[in-house]
């Protein structure tokens, strides 16, 4: 049974979400502030974290960063009323894998939980051997990218997921919509902007080898070649 760490400081909302998730056969370990959430994470064996951002004692960003220190591959979903692009980017930079704006439906939360768990499981069960392309070596299990000089770049969860999809579809066009649905669960404009940011980052990481190219096919997607 999937166990969720749920950290929410609004008691009424927390009670509703917790009971609703339990009614769908999820186990829920719940805390009402960031420090309590961190203690609970150290005590419980959880499969995924659902964290509010505006938490007392320790905010969700800091909590996610602390969780990442001991569990670098733990799936994390942020729940927040914040909707500015900079808030979303900060969320991903501090370790979040997905971002759900309040108010949200339970069905949408469950879909995002299941999508993220499936992606995590898929990345663990897929080929864990190092993948060589151009002058780079990618280790999907460790989320590490090594260049020809031996320098290692630690990729975020989303960066590694996008790179894996590009590699799986090398020398052919992959649609933006496919990437968005597989990694974000929907192809909204908001998530599309986030994808643009990650593609820009990957291009920067891969710029030392001119043979490795992420080519934008306008209105369709990307063509990855090496």
Automatic annotation (TrEMBL):
The keyword Signal does not apply. It comes from the Bacteria. InterPro entries: CheY-like_superfamily, OmpR/PhoB-type_DNA-bd, Sig_transdc_resp-reg_C-effctor, Sig_transdc_resp-reg_receiver, WalR-like, WH-like_DNA-bd_sf. Keywords: DNA-binding, Phosphoprotein, Two-component regulatory system. This is Response regulator transcription factor. The modification 4-aspartylphosphate is found at residue 52. Residues 128-226 bind DNA. Residues 3-117 form the Response regulatory domain. Residues 128-226 form the OmpR/PhoB-type domain.
